[in-house]
């Protein structure tokens, strides 16, 4: 019941994944990082388990190709198909530069607020239709040094300013 109340509150506040109009970092850094998941393939469907209709846990992710001069890593999960502009579902900041994967349900790093105003993973939850969910890993020249719960726009600006390479895995989800 508590989970249902939380989701109802988040969904109303997010106005169907359109509540925030954050933009992805506008970096022109090379896309040299390869991002994969054992849960879904690039361009494939995201299993229900990782969405608001399932357990709403983050999927396992892995990556390779971060440059040797990487000072930190960041991860942004967003939905560019949201009705009111890009909806950011999750932002992880300042992962160790040697990190090459995160496990399912990962929550042990600094997280900025998402478009729903919470510093946590908020799984795919489109109001209708099929949406694209972008899991983008950014190699940063140095850590952002932002605190847990940092403002979303501030976090995206910091990522943009420090990105030296990036990579993306895109999954699809359609609510039934």
How would you describe this structure to a colleague?
- The protein is an alpha+beta fold.
- The protein has a single domain, classed as Phosphatidylethanolamine-binding Protein (Alpha-Beta Complex).
- It is built from two helices and eight strands.
- The chain has helices at residues 2-14, 152-162; strands spanning 34-36, 61-64, 72-79, 87-95, 101-102, 110-112, 130-140, 163-174.
- It has a five-stranded antiparallel beta sheet with strand order 6-4-3-7-8. It has a three-stranded antiparallel beta sheet with strand order 1-2-5, with no helix packed on it.
- The protein is globular, with a radius of gyration of 15 Å.
- Residues 1-20 have low confidence and may be disordered.
- Helix/strand structural class: alpha+beta
Number of helices: 2
Strand content: 25-35%
Distance between the termini: 22 Å
Question: How large is the radius of gyration?
Answer: 15 Å
CATH homologous superfamily label? PEBP-like
Biggest β-sheet strands, sense, barrel = 5 strands, antiparallel
Kindly report the average pLDDT value.
88
